[in-house]
Design brief:
Blueprint (H helix, E strand, L loop, with lengths): L3 E4 L1 H5 L8 H12 L3 E5 L4 H10 L6 E3 L4 E3 L5 E4 L4 H14 L2 E5 L4 E3 L2 H15 L5 H13 L4 E2 L3 H8 L5 E5 L4 H12 L4 E4 L5 E6 L4 H11 L7 E5 L5 H6 L2 E4 L5 H6 L2 E2 L7 H11 L1
Parallel strand pairs: 1-2, 1-12, 2-3, 7-8, 12-13, 13-14
Antiparallel strand pairs: 3-4, 4-5, 6-7, 6-9, 9-11, 10-11
Helix pairs in contact: 2-12, 5-6
Length: 287
Amino acid sequence: MIKLIASDMDGTLLNDQMSVSEATITAIRKAQAKGIEFITATGRGISHAKISLDEADIHVPMILLNGAQVVNAKRETLFTVPISAEKTFKIMDTLDEAGIYYEIFTADHVYSENHPMRIEFVSQHLLEKAPGMTKKMAIAASSEHLSLIPVTYVENIRQLLIDKKEEVLKIIAFDKNGPEKLKAVSEKLEQIGDLALAASEVTNIEINHVDAQKGIALKHFAEQRGFTAEQVMAIGDNYNDVSMLTYAGTSFAMGNAAPGVKKIAKHITDTNEENGVATAIDRILSE
């Protein structure tokens, strides 16, 4: 019997409007009423993740930053898995040499050195999701969307990390050329060692400590609750979800999932625009 459901957010729990549908909210409530716990698992930091969840009045534990941070329903940190300062600076050097834009995540902040570049990447993402939108509309929507997400823009991230002694939990790098450019950089990053490289989009690399993965965090959380892998269900759509889809006894890939992810999951559900999470939950409850 399933006792814990873990769901990715972007492309899974959230529709293309970045919200949780009423059908999905209802399905989550039904599962909770039957004593099944629900946890989100995302590459987002807490300040970004809580926006959509608060709008849906969903207050549950969260696996954040691909597993580098786990918080309870009260959003108190249970544990973190940081990247060492030495490796952080090596990663930044590698990305700087390649001319790739990146952002640094700590438990409490998101740091960036380039505000215009951030808007450019978010607007490009919106254009891909809504082809009918003009570039001007996308930039305006991006600026509005980013105003909701606390980001600290600084001139020198390295110096700030040294001065504030903050632990780095995740680094995300973006390049519009996608795999064409990111593949070579990924190979250099892998040589640093003890890093987990994943992607939530074809145009990014998400860099964590090797032990900061959704599957590892989910396993740790489940065992703390006294659950076995067979009592866990996971739902996801992209390659940073693979570790938890592999761990969970029951796994669903979204209808919009990457082809490789669909091969790994045991089941396929509907797309995020068709309430795929609700479909998967209802299927499990009916069984």
